[in-house]
Structure prediction request, 196 residues.
Amino acid sequence: MADSDNTTTLPSVTQQRSDDRAANRCGQFDDADPAFALLRDWLRAQHVSRVLCRLQQRLETRILRAGCAPPMDVKAGYSIAYQAEVEAATAALKVQDRLPRTPAHSLLGVVAKLEIIVGADRDIDDPTDFPWPHIESILRDLKEVAGSVPLEGPDRSIVQADCRRYQAIAADLTGLGKDAADLPLVGYRALVSDRE
Prediction:
């Protein structure tokens, strides 16, 4: 009877890894893992933040080229775009803050969480400093064992809606009001299309 504990095999673990890799190759995975939703939310916020950053930079360039007399709508648009970018970046940071409280229910969930950690560091520190190359190495190893998380970029309509939402928040925060929030986003459609 004492040996009965040692006769337990681990085929379910082996099968789980095999199933994860097979599901990954088919582009499907179990949405029940909260880490996947977290990664999707973070990628979406990061994408919107980058779009708004590029918009803000384009408007800044227009202001600089205009010299002493930039049009009022360009200055208002720049102020809104700048604040909207800050709001989107803050949303990405809030998703990152949820990371320690979000459980991973699979090896692919662990991969998803590490994708956020490694991706966030690219924006903050030097990715060649300890421990980032080591963490990226672990992420590569996990992907080799479990596969990669198959995610698609956010749909253009979702990105546009998020940008408009952050633009409205920014217009309120800057005191420029709803009329300024409705100003067309100069070059916005080209920015969104560039990413697709």
About this structure: Residues 30-104+155-194 form one domain. The helical segments are 11-25, 34-66, 72-98, 107-124, 132-146, 156-174, 177-181, 188-194.
